[in-house]
Write a structure and sequence with these properties.
Rossmann fold; alpha/beta; four-stranded mixed β-sheet; Type Iii Antifreeze Protein Isoform Hplc 12
Length: 456
């Protein structure tokens, strides 16, 4: 509650929080828009694979050309301007920046950027939740050893959910479930970039007039993004993944406490303390009343009758027993809120959510019958979607994480609806960046197996 006051002190002292952003897409652009109105925070550099694209993003959100005309990082720091570069590693290695933001969306790139930042003693805010779902527990340990902060990105739903879980626990409540809302129907798991716009109801003219990436939009629709985000939440909070994937129950905000409780109590959960995503559509396609499509929630329990009476007295909506209730936030502001993570890392040395264990995984699952020789095309593509499973089940299946299911060739057939395994794909001949990501993930899996063996 004192971030702004801490930032104001830095601004008054002429020592702004200096930030380096990698990736000037939608999330990055939204952050850049707010950086203009945040005295005490200096975006010293923006790295993007295409410098012109970064310049266009800055101009689109209101930056003047002279504000991003620095010839080098040294020049940017001296004049309080911004350096644009295509060399993210040079930006990370440069002196003067405190916090690195990875907003690339590429797991291999995110891993490489985070590790380079740790070596340079810089904090990392990982907008790239795909990378966090893949090896977040490992990156968190490496950051701790380096003495820096590694953090989920505030404004994105996983960090907001982690915050709500922390609030509930700090207030003494037991958390029953936590998660977010989305638009979901079972048929969406088979959606492809070719069919996605029909499911969203977008016309060809609408798509042609905007900046729409079919594969990215499809990853939100086919369940993959939900699996990735709930994996990050489970690993950060200690909540569990459902035993056989997210259920996506249709549920409005008034029914959270009723639906998201254990089956033994009349709900849909296969136990207590679960992550879950609720649908804004009934299974027949009708809209859910008072849906939470854009928001996040936490369901928690009143341990005593006195507390349950207080729920009623203060207007909380509960289940029929009065035992369970919920809090929710109807919206999230994506990159417009990202500064909270940046400032928390720099000024408090605290993460806005960070993996504390390998508890859940987002695994590649076949959208259709796949044949030997086919190339997997990753998140939101034509071949696989991501399914959120408990980590121990993923390990027992030898499952291929969705974050690595891109550009790998199948060695054998995989039936529709089946989890794709490491044994099903060839991992040779990949790029150096991809090879490093595979090695990191396999190392994390082996560590998890060793921990499990030691506990037996």
């Amino acid at each position: 509650m004192n971030l702004h006051a801490l930032l104001a002190k830095r601004a008054a002292a002429g020592k702004p929080v200096r930030v380096g952003l990698i990736g000037a897409g939608k999330f990055g652009s939204m952050f850049l828009a707010q950086a203009l109105t945040t005295p005490g925070m200096h975006v010293a550099a923006v790295a993007d694979l295409k410098r012109d694209r970064a310049a266009a993003s800055l101009a689109r959100v209101g930056w003047k050309p002279e504000q991003f005309a620095a010839s080098s990082l040294t020049d940017a720091l001296a004049r309080g301007t911004t350096w644009l570069t295509e060399d993210s590693m040079a930006m990370i290695a440069g002196d003067g920046i405190e916090v690195i933001i990875d907003a690339t969306g590429s797991p291999p790139a995110g891993i490489a950027h985070a590790r380079a930042a740790f070596r340079a003693a810089k904090h990392v805010v990982m907008v790239n939740v795909e990378a966090d779902a893949l090896v977040g527990p490992m990156l968190a340990r490496e950051a701790e050893k380096a003495g820096v902060v590694y953090s989920l990105a505030y404004g994105d739903q996983p960090a907001l959910i982690a915050e709500m879980v922390d609030w509930a626990r700090a207030a003494g409540f037991e958390v029953t479930a936590a998660g977010k809302g989305t638009k979901y129907l079972p048929v969406y798991h088979a959606s492809t970039p070719e069919t996605v716009w029909g499911h969203y109801g977008f016309s060809a003219s609408q798509v042609a007039s905007g900046d729409f990436n079919a594969q990215m939009f499809n990853s939100f629709l086919d369940g993959t993004k939900s699996a990735i985000e709930m994996t990050a939440v489970a690993n950060a909070t200690g909540l569990s993944a459902p035993s056989d994937g997210l259920l996506f129950p249709p549920c409005g905000v008034d029914d959270l406490a009723h639906a998201l409780r254990p089956k033994s109590e009349g709900g849909v959960l296969d136990g207590n303390g679960k992550v879950e995503v609720i649908s804004s559509l009934e299974r027949d396609g009708r809209p859910v009343f008072r849906d939470l499509r854009w928001g996040v929630y936490v369901v928690f329990e009143g341990a005593t009758q006195y507390v349950r009476d207080c729920f009623k007295q203060y207007g909380l909506v509960t289940d029929s027993s009065g035992r369970y209730t919920a809090m929710y936030k109807p919206y999230h502001l994506i990159g417009l809120e990202l500064g909270i993570s940046v400032l928390s890392a720099a000024l408090r040395r605290e993460a806005t959510g960070v993996a504390t264990g390998f508890r859940a995984d987002a695994v590649a699952t076949a959208k259709r019958d796949l044949a030997p020789g086919e190339l997997l095309d990753g998140e939101g593509g034509y071949t696989v979607w991501g399914k959120c499973l408990p980590a121990e089940r993923s390990l027992s299946l030898g499952a291929l994480p969705i974050g690595l299911a891109h550009g790998l060739k199948l060695k054998r057939a995989v039936k529709a609806g089946t989890v794709v395994g490491w044994a099903d794909v060839a991992t040779d001949g990949v790029s150096s960046l991809m090879d490093q990501a595979i090695r990191a993930r396999r190392e994390m899996e082996e560590t998890a197996r060793g921990v499990a063996r030691a506990a037996q």
